[in-house]
Amino acid sequence: MISPEWEWWQDGVIYHVYLRSFADGNGDGLGDLPGLIARLDYLNGTPDSLGVDAIWISPCFPSPDRDYGYDVSDYTAIDPRYGSLDDFDRLIAEAHRRGIRVLLDLVYNHTSDQHPWFVDARTSRTSPHRDWYVWRDGRPGGGPPNNWQSVFGGKAWEWDPATGQYYYHMFLREQPDLNWHNPEVRRALLEATRFWLERGVDGFRLDVFNAWYEHADYPDNPTKLGLRGFDRQHHIYDVDQPEMHPALAELRGLLDLYPQRASVGEIFIADPVRAASYCGDRGLHMVFNFEFTHRRWDPRAFGAAIERADRSLAADGWPCYVLSNHDLPRHVTRYGGRHPHEVARVAAALLLTQRGTPFVYYGEEIGLPDVPLRRDQIVDPPGRRYWPIYKGRDPNRGPMPWGSGRNADFTSGSPWLPLRRDFGTLNVDAQRRDPRSAWSFYRDLLRLRRVTPALRRGEFQRLSRPSRDGLAYVRIAPGGQALVALNFRAAPVRLEFEHPIEPSDWSLGLAAQPERAAALTPDAIALGAFQAVVFIRSG
Ligand code: TEU
């Protein structure tokens, strides 16, 4: 059960810093910790800040970067390209001074093949770390132990000629899976977690946590139709094994030794009901709800997703919402069409007025779309493998355009990924000066959310009848209510209500399109093109 006192991770908004692309402090073209520290005022702590409550930093640990930080070679150090442990301590102190909590990204399903544990494991079948990874003999007639596939393409088993066995890797062959059945592995990972807790981090995002365990007998997965090898299987033996629950309880026990720590799990192959099973006092604080990321730009789909999340999590979970992250095309690119700026604002209102913790992906606050890239500019392994069917994740990981200076003021060197060509006009500085920008709307929404308990905690109740044009709902808290109405379309709409309201009770809190209609009547609201409004009422 959620404790009766509200925790920061329920009330707050978490900003996802993809570190490599956020701000470069030393001119090597890669974002880093000093660069992030220099931009903390942007995030919170001054009257002109965006106003977020926490940051989640993508992996900042030493890594050979086969999967850009998601292949870790040392869990208790900072990659020198991102800074030092001193920089990290400074980040925590400076962030806390501004009211920003810091979450780290723990990649515990696999290590890098350069991690000393794996380097040792592959020296011989009897090496001390051999059993820290998943080694199997081939099938009697030859070939890999079972039919499992790698997410990034090809088989999930790699033959190791030196020791004559296969090892398992759910992702790249340079990302061997850890053997969670081995108690020494669990202990080592808990120790790494403790290391960061002791340094003052406020919590963690757990990478593909529900893939930590594999079935101990390694049976074949049943097959089905699908595009890629990985999609042609029912993942019943390589994810969601029952051992996950005690493992999470153990991790939670450690987190609870420290006050106000939080965890959010990245669930793999999402399903809200299964996700809910991992939440609660003996599990994770939150599990990512990716429902918004695979919806069409259709209010009926989003309305259903919200109701589903609420329903499945009612008792012992707290919802969270995300529109974009480092693995997916940015939502302005997915939905924006010919109206990216308008859609950015409607989407922001949708994300930031839910009952549940919103995650904001860096750049979305300026309505940043993906960066169009050519084949020769792609560095992400699945993009290189599947181009042009799948272009990988580089386009949605572009450097943050801070200003109109050289390299958009992201770096004084040469950025690791290309910038968008339009950074001269589409950048943070320009949007902060413009009261009509996506940035100003995000900041205003975040402020309104902060001072309106109903927006953070109120129950969700759909107000409008199902419509392909828009969505209206109320958020109902003991001392006040909020009414949110969104027009998803480029034409005016009228949204009919399921039950009548008293229009005079409500006062306008915020409008995405101040000069366009937002007229409340007892049984409907009329909204101008791409209008998004929040009305407030007390009592
Ligand atoms: O992602 C897991 C995951 O679901 C993605 O790999 C997704 O399938 C992929 O992006 C589609 O191409 C996590 C991290 O978020 C991702 O960045 C890592 O690459 C991956 O784990 C391996 O650590």
> What would the principal axes of the Cα set say about the shape?
globular
Low-confidence stretches: none
Query: Number of DSSP strands?
Result: 19
> From the alpha-carbon coordinates, what is the Rg to the nearest angstrom?
24 Å
For the terminal residues, how far apart are their CA atoms? 27 Å
Order of neighbouring strands in the sheet with most strands: 9-8-7-3-2-1-11-10
CATH architectural designation of the largest domain: Alpha-Beta Barrel
Helices, by number, come to 15
Helix fraction bin? 10-25%
Biggest pleated sheet: 8 strands, parallel
CATH class of the largest domain: Alpha Beta
- The CATH superfamily of the largest domain turns out to be Glycosidases
Bound molecules: 1-O-alpha-D-glucopyranosyl-D-fructose
Helix-strand category: alpha/beta
CATH fold topology of the largest domain: TIM Barrel
Describe this structure in words.
The protein is an alpha/beta fold and 539 residues long. It folds into three domains: 370 residues, Glycosidases (TIM Barrel, Alpha-Beta Barrel), CATH 3.20.20.80; 53 residues, Oligo-1,6-glucosidase, domain 2 (Alpha-Beta Complex), CATH 3.90.400; 81 residues, Immunoglobulin-like (Sandwich). It has 15 helices and 19 strands. It has an eight-stranded parallel beta sheet. A hairpin with a 7-residue loop joins strand 12 and strand 13. Helix 6 runs parallel beside helix 7 and helix 11 runs parallel beside helix 14. The mean pLDDT is 96. 1-O-alpha-D-glucopyranosyl-D-fructose binds next to loops.
